[in-house]
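Problem statement: downstream parser choked on a complex file, so we are re-checking the raw output for the zinc ion run. The parser issue turned out to be on our end (a line-ending mismatch), but while we're here, posting the original submission so the record is complete.
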Amino acid sequence: MRQPGKVVCVGRNYAEHARELGHAVPEQPLLFMKPGSAVVDFLSPVVIPTDRGACHHETEICLLLGQDLRRADARQARAAIAGIGLGLDLTLRDLQAELKAAGHPWERAKAFDGAAVLAPFLPPSACPDLGQIEFFLEVDGQRRQRGHSGDMLLGLVDLLVHISAVFSLQSGDVVMSGTPAGVAALQVGQRLCLGLAGQTWTSQVVAADA
Ligand code: ZN
């Protein structure tokens, strides 16, 4: 997998997930980043740290940029999408809670090596209506997260417009668009299945070397 320069992530983009973590729905998107070094392929085993508390899955629609975007309008943003896929925004939830409580940045909980797990990208033609994308995560055969892009507080194109007004996006960068409800801790040995646009991908959870 080609490593992106950066992954821009969106927090609390689904009202139901914001509620499950006890957060208010933000007035503007909550943005953070993962470095390119955090990106790994979902089809390799999903490697989780086991020495820093719970590691949660957040299943998210991901956009691969095929063009640079800076202060883009909606037409430019739409045209820059080179791939649509799913990813797991792995989050060390206990550590994140400590960092939040201390008013510290989240990188230790969100930007570690392997924290941005990406399934293969589909061509944009696989999802012609960006407002009607359904996706899911199954863990050991149980549907744990189910999402619909129509439930996003800010839709995919609007997200790119908003993000590109804050940070320059470069070709090869990835945007993770936020998780629906149902986040939970991953356990070593679980089998994962991601589904998007009639495609599914499976993998397994393994422990990082201590
Ligand atoms: Zn997330």
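For whoever reads this later: The CA atoms of residues 16 and 22 lie 10 Å apart.
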